[in-house]
Design brief:
By secondary structure, this protein is of the alpha/beta class. The protein has helices at about 1-15, 30-40, 60, 100-105, 105-115, 115-125, 165-185, 210-220, 240-250, 270-280, 305-310, 320-335, and strands spanning about 20-25, 45-50, 70-75, 90, 130-135, 190-195, 195-200, 225-230, 235, 240, 260-265, 270, 290. About 40% of the residues lie in helices and about 15% in strands. The protein is globular and about 55 Å long.
Length: about 350
């Protein structure tokens, strides 16, 4: 795949190689996890993917099943897991992550990021492996305007009881577990705070949750493009290869031990701008309609990425327009296959 080769040249150019490493990826059959598994295998690592297919798909990893260095373990990481194999790196990504799932599966989400994080940490501890935890920009909640772009040092403005708390607070607790294991057992840990990421293999049925698949699906099928609020609220959109590049650098670079790092595109985009851009790129006739804002929806979201630049020599490379073109092409294929 061309994009995996592009990623390899970026990562090898930065001196990052996983050849010969034994890596466990929880949530490896999901959107981000499957890109990570595919890249690691292509780079000569052996990969064990642990997934219960709560929100992931077998089709995301079916093309990896023939690879003798790939192993799939179907398991809910909220429950303890004993594996005889040893690992060099454990990457804990398992968690439902779409806002529409916050309503339907709040307890599962809390469990995957609290008990699930403990179980991933225990596997890493037994192996004396490094652990990377996939956290989120949502730990910042709705930041005060002077904290946008948001640096890692911002402690957040988050509701412990609101409808998003099952996700935001679960991730905050997950981070606290990671730091507790680091302090108590001296483990090598890293926390990545991921900002909105989009690209091929996002669930094409995720049209109630994440804004990019919703707008693309609506534009391609001629339905109204549904903007919440006035559309003046902002998000930062990171193309998947940029995100995976940053995550893998953070997992690899020795100097990043113990660090918490934002990985996201620092271009802030208004939601209405995104709707208009998708409408133009798809050549859609859909009208743009406006609907009430969901509760606790953050007004602005943009990362301060100076730490990632300094520590990992990372910055996003794929423009929003180019990333959307690639994503739209993938959705078009999906829709025509249906
Ligand atoms: N994509 C984004 O924009 C984004 C932003 C911030 C944080 N993240 C984080 O990155 C990680 C991956 O997100 P994604 O976008 O790939 O989501 P996804 O839903 O596509 O992938 C999550 C994967 O975890 C699996 N999973 C869920 N609960 C599990 C459990 N209890 N045991 C085993 N497997 C389980 C799912 O089946 C799925 O394969 C998540 O932790 C998410 O919170 C993603």
């Amino acid at each position: 795949m061309r994009e995996i080769e592009e990623l390899r040249s970026r990562l090898h150019g930065a001196g990052v190689s996983f050849s010969g490493m034994r890596v466990l990826v929880t949530g490896g059959a999901g959107f981000l996890g499957s890109w990570i598994c595919e890249y690691l295998l292509s780079d000569g690592a052996s990969v064990t993917c642990v997934d219960n297919f709560a929100s992931g798909l077998k089709s995301n990893v079916s093309h990896l099943m023939q690879n003798e260095n790939f192993r799939l373990v179907e398991h809910d990481i909220s429950k303890p897991l004993e594996l005889s194999q040893r690992f060099d790196l454990v990457m804990h990504l398992a968690s439902r992550a779409s806002p529409f799932e916050f309503e339907k599966y709040p307890i599962e989400i809390l469990m995957a990021n609290t008990m699930g994080t403990v179980h991933a940490l225990e596997i890493a501890r037994r192996s004396e492996a490094r652990l990377l935890y996939a956290s989120t920009s949502e730990v910042y909640g709705d930041p005060a305007p002077e904290f946008v772009p948001t640096p890692e040092s911002y402690n957040g403005n988050v509701s412990t009881t609101g409808p998003r708390s099952c996700y935001d607070e679960a991730k905050r607790a997950g981070e606290a577990f990671v730091m507790a294991y680091r302090r108590q057992y001296g483990m090598d840990t890293r926390i990545v705070r991921i900002f909105n990421t989009y690209g091929p293999r996002m669930r094409s049925d995720d049209i109630y949750g994440r804004v990019v698949p919703r707008f693309i699906e609506q534009a391609l099928t001629g339905k109204p493009i549904t903007v919440f609020g006035t559309g003046e609220q902002t998000r930062s959109f990171t193309y998947v290869t940029d995100e995976v590049d940053g995550i893998l650098r953070l997992a690899y670079v020795d100097e990043a031990e113990g660090e918490v790092v934002n990985i996201g595109n620092n271009r802030e985009t208004r939601i209405i701008e995104l709707a208009e851009l998708i409408k133009r790129l798809t050549g859609s006739e859909s009208e743009i309609t406006f609907h009430p804002l969901p509760k606790d929806d953050p007004k602005r979201r943009a990362p301060d990425i100076s730490k990632a630049r300094r520590l990992l020599n990372w910055k996003p490379e794929v423009s929003l327009e180019e990333g959307l073109r690639r994503t739209i092409a993938w959705f078009e294929q999906r829709l025509s296959a249906k």
